[in-house]
Amino acid sequence: MERRCRVSGTLNLLIGLAMGLNLLALASSRLPTLIGAVAVQGVVLGVMPLLMEHQFDWIVALVALGTMAVKGFVIPGLLRRAMRTASVDREVEPSIGFVASLLLGSGGTIAAVALSRALPLLPEHAGSLLVPGSIASVLTGFVLLIGRSKAISQVCGYLVLENGIYLFGLLLIHATPLLVEAGILLDVTVGIFVTGIIVDRIQRAFDSLDTRKLNVLRE
Amino acid sequence: MKPLLLILLPLAGAVLAAVWPGERTRPWLMPVFGLMHTVLAFWLLFDPPVVAPGAWLAFDPLARAVLPAVSLLFLVCAAYGVSYLRVRSERPNRVFVAMMLAVLGLLSAGHQARHLGLLWIATEGVTLAAVPLLHFNGTARAIEATWKYLLVGGTGIALSLLGSFCLSYASLHSGGSGDLTFVALAHQGAGLSRPWVLSAWVLLLVGYGTKMGLAPMHTWKPDAYGEAPGIVGAILAGGVTTVAFTAVLRIRAVVSAAGEGAIADRTLLAIGLFSMLVAALFLLGTRDFKRMLAYSSVEHMGILSVGAALGGAGVWAALFHVWSNSLTKGALFLSAGNINRAAGGRTMDQVRGMSIIAPQSAAIFVAGMFAVTACPPFGPFFSELRVVRAAFDAGRSGAAAMFLGCMLFAFFGLTRLVFAIVDGRPRPASSITSRRFPENASVVMPPLILLAFSLWLGLATPTVLLDAWTGAVAQLYLAP
Amino acid sequence: MTPGPLLLLAATTLVAGIVIGPRARSAWLANTLAGALALVAAAILILLGGPVWEWRSVFLIGGEPLHFRLDSLSALFLALVGVVGGASTAYAHEYWSDRDRPHSAPQGRRWSSAMLLSMVTLLLSANGLHFFIAWELFALSAYFLITLDRGRREVRAAGWLYLAASHAGTVCLFAFFAALASRTGSWELGPMREHAELAPLFWLALAGFGLKAGMFPLHIWLPSAHANAPSHVSALMSGVAIKMGIYGLVRFSGWLPVSAAAGWTVAGIGAVTALLGIAFAFAQNDFKRLLAYCSVENIGIILVGLGFALVAESQGASLSVWGRLALAGALLHVWNHGLFKSLLFFGAGSVLHTTGTREMSRLGGLWRAMPWTAGLFALGALAISGLPPLNGFVSEWLVYLGLLDAVTNHGSAAWAAMPAIIVLGTTGALALASFVKAGSMIFLGSPRTKPARLAHECGPWMRAPMLALALGCVAIGLAPAIFWPTVARAVGVWQPAWTGIDAPAPLFALGWVQLSLAALACAAVAALWWQARANGLRRALTWDCGYAVPTAHMQYTAGSFAGIGAGWFAWILQPERRLHRPRGLFPTDAIRLERIPETVLERVIGPVASVIMRVSTAVRRLQHGHLHYYIAYLLMGLSALGTFVALGSKP
Amino acid sequence: MMSFLEIVLRVAGWLVLAPLLPGIINKVKAWVAGRRGPPVLQLYYDLGRLWQKGVVLSTLASPGFIAGPAVTWVAIFGAAMLLPLGPAGAALSFRGDVLLLIYLLALARFCTTWAALETGSAFEGMGAAREVSYAVLSEAALITAVLTLSVHTGSVTLATMLEPAAGAGAALLGAGLFCVLLAENCRVPFDDPNTHLELTMIHEAMILDHSGPPLAAILHGAAMKLLFFALLLIEAVVPVGTLSPFAAAATLAASVLAVTVAVGLVESLLARLAFRRVPLLLTTAFLLCLFALLVAWKGGAA
After folding, report:
1. DSSP secondary structure of B320-358
2. What does the alpha-carbon distance between residue C2 and residue D49 come to, in Å, rounded to a whole number?
3. Strand, helix or coil at A91?
4. What b/e readout covers D239-261, taking b as 16+ CB neighbours within 10 angstroms?
5. Minimal Cα distance from B181: which residue of A?
6. Burial class (CB in 10 A: 0-12, 13-18, 19+), C464
7. Quick one: closest CA in A to B148, which residue?
8. Under a CB-based contact definition with an 8 Å cutoff, are residues B135 and B145 in contact?
9. Do C365 and D293 lie within an 8 Å CB cutoff?
10. Subunits adjacent to chain D (3 or more Cβ pairs under 8 Å)
11. In Å, how far is C612's CA from the nearest CA of chain A?
C-alpha cells in the first residue's frame, strides 16, 4: 500500500516535471532548447510505465525502452538533422508571443486540473496527476501547433500533444492489452518519419521551413 | 478467412508493387488486385459469413453494408488509374501504386474492425498511406496540401486516440475487463461511466469528423482534393471518409447503449447541419472546380451525419447515401480530372467552353453535377429524399428545412461554376493542351460506368443492398 | 376502347423520339406527331365520359411500384400537352431547322421529346415518388430546351435564372412530398381530404407549384426565360409547361384538405398576379417579354377561379355551387390560354425569324410582307383580350359568372368577389390595350427599320400549326356548349359534389349569340367592302392632317403608346429612363431610352442575393491557407462540441 | 321569345333613331351659343352622303382598315340588341348577358383603335393611346355600376337588373354612369368632338383618315353608342321596367331627350379638361359607382 503511495508520489513528481517541461517548451525561444525539452519529456514519459508496474514485466519494459529510445533520441535526432540541413536560423519566430504562450499554457494547466475534477478516477489512480498532466500537455501541444510558425516547432508541438495522450494511456496500462501501446508507438514513429520526410520536402521545395510561406492554397 | 483475405490481398499487392520491376506494367496491379477484392467483397455481400461476437475483425453487417461500395469504387478508379499513369508516365509510379493498394487494404481493415483500438490503427494507417498519393504531382502546391493534410489530419487522429482512451477508461469503471470490442462496450451499457463516455464521444466525433471532413475540421479537404490527382480524390472522398463515418456509427451505438443516445444524435445533427451550411456558403463563391468538389463532399458528409442523427430510418438512408455519394462523387472526380488535364486549368477564369474541347467528359461532369445535387433519377436523389423523409418522421421539420435550404444554395453554387466552365468559347491555350490529352474510352468509360451505377442504384436498388442496410441498422440499434 | 394502347403508343413514340431525334429529322417529326395524336385521342376517350383508366405494375422504380391513372382532370391537361406539343413539334421543323441550327436543332428534338414524355408521365403518375421524378425531369429538360441557343450569353443567363428558380420550387416540393409520404406512410396519391393534419402541406405545394406556374411574386424567372427561349419552346413553356404548375395546384388542392385561408390566399394572389402581370406586359417594348408577362396575367385569372373554388369548397361544396362555375372557367381558361398563347408565340416566332429583332419599335408594317401571320396574330390578340366571339371570352365569362353568383349570394365570399370582379375588368381593359399595342406596333403602319422592310412570310410548316390553334380558338368560342361537358367532368373529379353535366350557365345561348355576331360581322365587313369598292377605292398617302412627307419615325412607338397607362403603374414598374433633351437652336441629337426592369428580381431578389454573396465572401476568407488557424478551428470545434454536450446532457 | 315583327321594329328603331341624338346635342349647343346651328337631321344627310362617297385608303392601310369600322358597328349593334327596353325586354336575354354587353363594347374599342393604327399616323396613334388608356378607368367604373345593379337586384341578367330603380344609390349611380357616358362617347369634358386641333382629340383623332362608307359606319355606330348609354343610364335610375308599355315608352323618350340636352348643356357650359386631369374625373366616376355599390350592398344586407 505505502509502496503504491510512494510510487504514485514519484509518478506525480515525474508528471509535474513533464508539465514543467511543457512550460519550458512554450517559453523556449530557440529551436534546440525546444527540441531538447521535448526529448527530455519523452525520456521522462518512458520511465513512467516501469514505475507503475508492481512486478517487473518484460513487455512493459520493452515498451518503456522503445518509447524512451524513439521519443527521447530518434525523433529529436531527426529534427536536429532537419534543422541542420535546412540551415534555418535557430529562432522560433512565434506567431503567439512567448508571454502569451506561457499564460495560455499555465491557463491550460489550471483548466486541465479543473476539468479533471469532473472526471471520476478509478480508486487505484486516486491522487495521481495523470489526467491533468495529459490534458495540460495536449493543450500545450495545441498552443505550440497554433503559435509557432516553423515546421520543426510545429512538429515539436505535435509531439507534446502525443506525449499528453501517452500520459493518458498510462492510466490504461494494466487494463488494455498492448495493442493500444503498440498503436501509440506505431503512430508516433510512422507519424514522425513521415513528418520528417515532409519537412525535408518542404525545405527542398520552399528552401525554408517557415510554414507561413505555405499559404498559396486559399479561397 | 475471406474477411481477412480482404485485407491481406491488397497489402500483399502493395508489397508486390513495391518490388515490381516494370514501370509500364506496374499500374496493372491495381485493377488486378482491385478486381479480386471486389469479387471477394461481393461474394461476401451475397453470402455474409456468421460473425463471432467477440471477433476483432469481421465482415459484420455494417461492413457488409458499406465495404462493397468502396471496393467497387476502387476497382473503377484503378481501371482509370492505368490510363492515367500512362499519360503521367513522367512521374515514377512505384510508391503510388503500392500506396493505393495499401490504402485499399487498410480501408478494408477499418471497415471490418470491431475493436476500438484496431479501428483507430486502421484509420491512422489509411491517413498515413494516403500521404504519398497526395503529393504524387510533387509540385510545391502538392507538398503544401500534404503538409496541411498531415498536420490537421494527424491532430484529429491524435484526438480520436485520446477519445478511444477515454472510452476504454470509461469501460474500466464498474469492473470492465478492458475488452474494447464494440460488442463488449455496448454490452456494458449503462455501466460505462457517464462523464468519460461523453468526453470520449466529443473527442472521437472531432477526431473521426476530421477524417470525414465535417466543418470546422474540413479545412484540409479543399487543398488535398484540389492538388491530388482525380483518382486519389475519388478514393479519399468515396472511401476514406466512409471509414470514418462507419467509425462514428459504431461509436454512436456504444454511446447510445450507455444511455446517451439523445445527446449524441443532437451533436450529430448540429455538426451535420453546420457542415452543410458552411459547405453551401463556400460553394456559392468558389471558382475552382476541384475545390468545389471538396466542398460538395463536405456537404455530403454533413448529409451523412444528419442522417445518422435521425434514428433507424435515418441511418438506413445514410448508408444508402454512402453508396450513391461514393459512386457519383467518383464519376465527378474522374471527369473533373479529364477536364482539368484537357483545359490546363482549374478555375472558371482559366477554363471555358469544355463542352467543345472535351464534350464527353463535360457531359458526364454536368450529369454528375445534377446527380450530386439530388436531381432524379440518380442515386443521391433517392437517398436524400429518404433522409428528409426520416427527418419528418422524427418530427424534426426545422432540421429538414435547413437541410433543404443548404441543398438549394449548394445547387446555386455548383450550377453556377459548372456551367461557367462548360459553356462559352474555349481559350486558345486549352485547345492546345487538349490535344496532348485526347478523350478516349479508357478515360471516359470509368466515370460513365460509375454514373451508370449511381443511376441503377437509384432506379432499381438491388434487394441484397436493401437488406444489407437493414441488417446494419439492426446491428447498430440492437443495443438495449 | 380504353386509352391504354394509345398511351403505350404515345410513350413508345416519345421514347423513340429521344433516341432517333438527333439523327432522323423527318422520321422524328412524323413519329412525334403520331404520339401527340395518340395523346389527344387518349385524352378524348376519357373526356367523353370514359371510365377512369388505371394501370398498376409490380415493376419497381425507386422502390415503388408503377401506378398510372388517367382521370378527366389529368386528361384535360393531357389533351393540351398533345395539341400544343404536336403544334410546336411541327413549327420547330421549319423554325429551328437543321439548316439554320446545325448544332442545336438535333439536341432540341431530343430534349423536346424528353420534355413531352416527362410531362405525360407527370400527368399519369398516381405515385408521389414518380410524380416528383417526372416533375424534376420535366423541369430539367425544359432548362435544356430554353438554353438550346447556348452560344448567347443572355440565353445562358436566362436559363440559369430559370434553373435556379425552378430548383427553389423543387426544394419546396422535396419537403412537400417527403412530408406527405412520412405523414400518410405511403407514396400512393389519391383523395385524402379526411386527413385534417395534412392541411398545412398545401402551403408547400402552393409555393412549389405556384413558382412553376409563374404566380406573382414568384414569376421572376418567367419573362426572361420565355423571351430568350426559341419561340417554339416559348410556346411549349407558356402553353403547357406553366400549366403543369396549375395542374399540381388543382390536383393537390383536390386531394388534400385545404383550409379556407389557403383559398382566400390563392384568390388574392391570383388577383394581384393578373393585374400586375398585365401592367408589366403593357409597359414592355420586347414583344416576347410582353407575351410572357401576359402569361403571368392569365395564370392570375386561372388562380382567381381556383381560389374561389377553394373558398366555395371550404364553405360547403354542396351549398355554394358558384365555386363550380369559377373552377370550370379556370380549367377552360387553361385550355384557351394554351391555345392562343402558343398561337401568339408562334406568330412572334415567325416575326423574329424573319426580322431578327424583338423590339416592337424597330418593326411595323409587317402585314404586307406576312399577311397570314398578321391575321392569325390579330385573331390571337382578340382571343387573349377576352373579346367575344372567341374562346378567351367564354372562360373569363364563366369565371365572372361564378364570382357574380358569389356576390349575389351575399355570402362572406362576396366581400372578396366584388374587388376581384373589378380587378378582372380592369385587367381585361389593360390586356386589350397591350394587344392593340403589340399587334399594331408589329404589323401596322410603316416599317421602322430595314429588317422590317425586308421581312417575308413564314413557310407552311410554321403556318399550319398557327392555323390549327386558331381553329381551336374559334371552335371553343363559337360552340362552348360542346366543350362544357369535358370541363364539367374534370370539375367533378376535383369535387365529387359538383359532378353533373348540366351547365349552370346558358352556354348554348351564348354560343348562338357569338355565332350570329360572327356571321353578322362577316356580313357587315363584306357589305362595307363591297360598297366601298362600288363607290371607288383610291390609294393615297396617309392624310395625317396634310403633313406632306410623313416618315416612319413619326409614328407612335410602343413606349409612347403605353405612356399614359404605364404612368399609372410607375410605382411598381419603376421604369429606368435615359433622357437627353434636344438643346440649342439646331439640336443635333436627342435620346430617350426607357427600360422596364423586372422589379421583383432587380429590386428585391437582387439585393438579398448580394447580401448572401457578401456573407459567403466573408466566410470564404476563413479558408486563407494559414495552417495555424486551421488547427485553431479544430480546437474551437472541439470546445464548442464539448460545451454543447456538457450543456445538452444535464440529466 | 318575341315575334319577328317586334325584332324588325326594334332594329329599325335603333338604326333610325340613333342619329337623332348628335343632332339634338348640336342644336342645344347652338341654341345656348345663340346661333341657329345645323339642322337636327344633319347627321342623316351626312350618313347618306358618306355612304355614296368613294374611299381614300392610306397606302399603309390593310383590309383591317375597312373591317375595323364594320366590326365596331356590329359590336355596338349587338350590345344594343342585348339592352332591354323597359317592359319590352331585350331582343335576346340570358343569364350573364351583362358581361357580354361590356365585352362587346370592348370589342368595338379594339376594332376602332386597330383601324386607327392602320394608317401609321402620329395623330391616330395619339388618339388610340388615349382611348385604350382611359378605357381602363371607365371600364372599371362601368363594371362597378353593373356590380351595383346585380347586388341590388340579386340577378346577373340585364332584364331583371334594369327592371327596378337602383334604390338608395340611384343618384350616385346616375352621376357615375353619366360621367362614363361622356367618357365613352368622347364628349366634353373628356374630348371635344368638333375642335379643330387634332392634338387634343381622342375619338375624332382616331378616325381622321376614314372616309366614305366606313366613316358612315363609324358615325352611325357612335350615335348608337350614345343612345345605348343614355338608355342604360335611364333604366338604371328610373324603374322603367315596372311601368305600363306606353308610360315606359314615354318615359324613355322623355328621359333620353333629357340626357341628350344635358350632354348638350355640359358641352356648351364646360370646357374640355386638360388631359392629365381626365383620369381624375374618371376615377371620380369610378368612386361614385363604388359608393353606389356600397349603398346597394348595405341595402341588400339589410
Report:
1. HHHHHHHHHHHHHHHHHHHHHHHHT--BTTT---HHHHS
2. 66
3. strand
4. bbbebeeeebbebbeebbeebbe
5. A176
6. middle
7. A214
8. yes
9. no
10. C
11. 17
Q: Count structural domains, chain B.
A: 1
Q: C62 contacts in B (CB within 8 Å)?
A: 376-377, 382, 458-459, 461
Chains in contact with B, counting 3 or more C-beta pairs less than 8 Å apart as contact? A, C
Among A138, A142, A171, the residue with its CB nearest the CB of B169 is: A171
Q: Touching check for B281 and chain C: CB below 8 Å?
A: yes
- Minimum Cα–Cα distance from B153: chain A residue: A191
Judge contact between B330 and B240, C-beta under 8 A: no
Residues whose CB is less than 8 angstroms from the CB of residue B429 and which lie 6 or more positions away in sequence, other chains included: B344
Whole-number Å distance between alpha carbons of C170 and C628: 41
CA distance C627 to chain B (A): 6
pLDDT tens digits, one per residue of B391-433: 999 999 999 999 999 999 999 999 999 999 999 888 888 878 8
- Amino acid identity for residue B52 in this structure: A
Residue type for C433, please? Answer: A
Residue C146 to residues A27, C219, C227, C297: CA-CA distances in angstroms?
66, 16, 10, 21
CB spacing of C620 vs B281 below 8 angstroms: yes
C502 three-class SS: coil
Which cell numbers hold the place of C447? 416599317
* Burial label, C355 (beta-carbon count in 10 A; 0-12, 13-18, 19+): buried
Residue-wise pLDDT for B127-166, tens only, equals: 889 988 998 888 888 988 988 898 899 899 889 988 988 8
Q: Any chain D CB within 8 A of the CB of C565?
A: yes
Chain B residue whose CA is closest to C638? B206
Q: Do B282 and C163 touch (CB under 8 A)?
A: no
CB-based contacts of B217: which residues, under 8 Å, 6+ apart? B152, B156, B206, B209, B210, C633, C634, C637
Does the complex come out with an ipTM higher than 0.90? yes
Q: Of C238, C137, C256, C155, which is closest to residue C201 (Cα–Cα)?
A: C256
Mode of pairing for the β-strands spanning C576-580 and C537-540: unpaired
Q: H or E element: which one contains C334? A: helix C322-355
Contact list in C for residue B317 (CB cut-off 8 A) is none
Whether residue A180 and residue B165 make contact (CB cut-off 8 A), yes or no, is yes
Measuring CA to CA, which residue among C254, C364, C236 is closest to residue C295? Answer: C236
Q: What is the pLDDT along chain D (302 residues), one digit of tens a residue?
A: 567 888 899 999 999 999 999 999 999 999 999 998 899 999 999 999 999 999 999 989 999 999 999 999 999 999 999 999 888 888 889 999 999 999 999 999 999 999 999 988 888 899 999 999 999 999 999 999 999 999 988 899 998 888 887 677 889 999 999 999 999 998 888 888 776 566 778 888 888 889 999 999 999 999 999 999 999 999 999 888 888 889 999 999 999 999 999 999 999 998 888 888 889 999 999 999 999 999 988 875 44
Burial of residue D8 (CB within 10 Å: 0-12, 13-18, 19+) is: exposed
Touch between chain C and chain B (3+ CB pairs, < 8 Å)? yes
Query: Does C626 reach chain A within 8 Å, measured CB to CB?
Result: yes
Taking CA atoms, what residue in A is nearest to B199? A119
Residue B141, domain extent: 2-476
Find, among B29, B219, B231, the residue nearest to B133 by Cα: B231
Q: How far apart are CA D179 and CA D168, in angstroms?
A: 19
Quick check: A195 and B178 CB within 8 A? Answer: no
Minimum distance, in Å, between the CA of residue C627 and any CA atom of chain A: 8
Q: Which residue of C has its CA nearest to B280?
A: C616
Cell of C436: 392593340
At A139 the three-state DSSP class reads helix
| Separation CA C377–CA C388 (nearest Å) | 16
